[in-house]
Task: structure prediction
Amino acid sequence: MEITGAQIFVKALKEESVTTLFAYPGGQAIDLFHALYGEKEIDVILPRHEQGLVHAADGYARSTGKVGVCLVTSGPGATNLVTGIATANYDSVPLVCFTGQVPTSLVGNDAFQEVDIVGITRSISKYAVTVRKREDLAETIRKAFYIAKTGKPGVVVVDLPKDVQKAYGSDSYQKEITVRGYKPNTSVHMGQLNKALDILNHAKKPVFLIGGGVNIAHANKEMTQLAEMTGVPVITTIMGKGAIPTTNDLYVGNIGIHGSYAANSAISKCDVLFSIGTRFNDRITGKTEEFAANAKIIHIDIDTASISRNIIVDVPIVADAKKVICALLEKAKPLHISQWTDEINRLKMEYPIDMKKSGLTPQRVIQSINELFEDAVVTTDVGQNQLWTTQFLDIDENKQMLTSGGLGTMGYGFPAAIGAKLGNPHKDVIVISGDGGMQMNIQEMATAIVYELPIIICILNNGYLGNVRQWQEMFYDRHYSSTCMRYRRSCETGCNTPNHCCPEYTPDFIALAESYGAKGIRVTKPEDIKTALISAKQNTKTPTVIEFIIDREINVLPIVPPGNSLNDMILER
Result:
């Protein structure tokens, strides 16, 4: 039987078990939407902007472990996906992004709403392709899903010209596929693994450094077992947080420029650094020549290109994190390193991450979330709000954190929460955002309203683009250039001291939330934090916006100044 390309598109989504599609229509995708009309097996979600759409698909994928799928039209519809594609690809999130395209006969003629989206996204996706023949369509879609979710997960962009959507062809959709030249590594090199174990077994001061690869591989339970079996302390990157429960005695904290004193010190003092699933990027290493200078480094990663790219390692192992950890569980043994663990525990006690401030602080807000929400997905935006969350949020098998790690995308948190709530309707979903990032995709409040998503949105409002302002305070002589969100043209030029005379903040987040139909709460005193969160939790029909008014010049500490080693931490100011 012959069917149109648009119809095989819908059939393919069903065959790939897609039940949620984030989509925004347009002229070059209208045939695909026509084929989706009345479809009961696929829930088509209409956000209010394509960037919100792709972040929502990202949040859905991260929180469920499924492939996130989105569909937009050509031209601006496609280019509005670019930031979200880069965001997801940096963090190894499996997405398949379908874009409409002008008919093949018009490609290259500067037709209305024509852009080379494949060329634009080739460097920020795992694979990007234009389908030029109807007979290639089904195989290309199958290939897209296979590539997105196997090996190191990532984003695949499939560009669909309008004539291919309309053309007739076979209704066959083969689930089995082989992609020439694409052979993800699935085995563990036992020789290298035995070499790594031998080094670990002779260590006096070992640490596990865990990145996002362990969370992506859903190896949290196994990683916890491995840590407890060996007794080796666990340090995480921001993306690796939650690899073992943060309340576990072996968990030290995050590493990096805003890492804990104990974690950064342990990396500097360790004699074996056993790393799983991290790229060793500049946010965690500090001055690379002084990073783990006294240690033998074992690096396990599914991506060959990540091995020894930033930090030269002694034992490389290219493999899936979960498979390696399971293999280690069969061979590992307890280590006698109590003197080392006692030293780390002493550092944790002597130098805790504590804001040491009275009043309404992000620490108190996040600790209240820890106490009140047991089964939850917490998304963050980017900036100080993200860093405070990664410092103070407790994560275990029932609580998950979603954040933009590699690209650091402002505007990510709220739409990602929409995707997470759609994928996890029975979980509480909480957004922790700054006042700046919240405004980047605030139009998605309408999406949350119309799909009746009772998301809790916590805005930490200090009236600044806080992370940049902090750097301006600490390293640029308090020159608060373009970071004050209360600025008016009538303000004094060069102001760097916020005071009671500053103009009112725009917008009024509470009035704006209520104009959409959401509930709005403003909190100015610490004793009202839990009351507001409980009220939000009880509101099961609409989103709740809680605006926490925090100190305008509050900082994220510790911090490693740019270009310094992890030992050079500023602990307080």
The mean pLDDT is 95. The longest strand covers residues 95-101. The first helix runs from residue 5 to 15. The CA atoms of residues 5 and 165 lie 4 Å apart.
